[in-house]
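Trying the structure run again after the queue cleared.
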Amino acid sequence: GDPERRSGQAWLPAAPGDDAGEGEGEAPMNEAVERLLEKLDAQGPPMRTLAGDAEAEYNDQMRRGERAMVAGRYFDAEARFIAAAVSAPTQPLPRVGQIHAQMGAGLVRTAATNLRNLFVDHPELIATRYLPTLLPEEARLVWLRERLEEMIGLAETPEPALLMAYLGYQTGNRELVVFGLDKAQARTPDDPLLPVLRRLWLD
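Done. C-alpha cells:
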C-alpha cells in the first residue's frame, strides 16, 4: 500500500478486531485522537476562500476554480483544483475544492470516496465549514441529496452515507448528519472514523 496513506491513518483509533484492540470490545479513542478532538471542537467561522493571497500559480488556479464553482461550471472547477494540487501537492485545500466540484458535477461516487480519504489524511479539516459560494448551488445540492438517498438504498459501502452526513454538516441540517452517520454505521459498525465524525459534527 501507499506509505502516505498508512501514515495518514495513524491518528485513527483502532477498530475492534484490530491487533491493538482485539478481545477488548470497542477500542477507546487514543490520546492523540482526544487531543485532536479537543482542538477541533472549537469551530471557527466558515472558510471564505480556499485560495491564499500570494500571486502564485497555485492561488491563481484556486481562485479560477472558485469562480467556476460560483458560475456552476463544475467540471471546469474540478480541472482548476486538480491543476492547483499538481502545483502544490502537499496542500489539502485543492482536494476540498475537487470534492465540492465533483459533488456539483454529479461525480458522486468519486466525491464520496475522496471525502473519506481526505478526512483520513487531513483530520484537521473534518470540522471545517465553508461558505455557500465554495459549495455547489442550492438546486444542485437538492439533486445531490436525492441521488445520495438512492445510492444509500443500494450501496453496501458507507461512503455515500458519509457524503450525505457531510452535506448535512455543511448546510446546517442536523437531521441529515444523523441520518448519514447512522446509515454509514449500519454498513461498517467498526469504522473508527465514524465516532470522530459524530463527536465533531453532532456533539
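Residues 138-154 form the longest helix (17 residues). Worth checking whether this holds up in the mutant runs.
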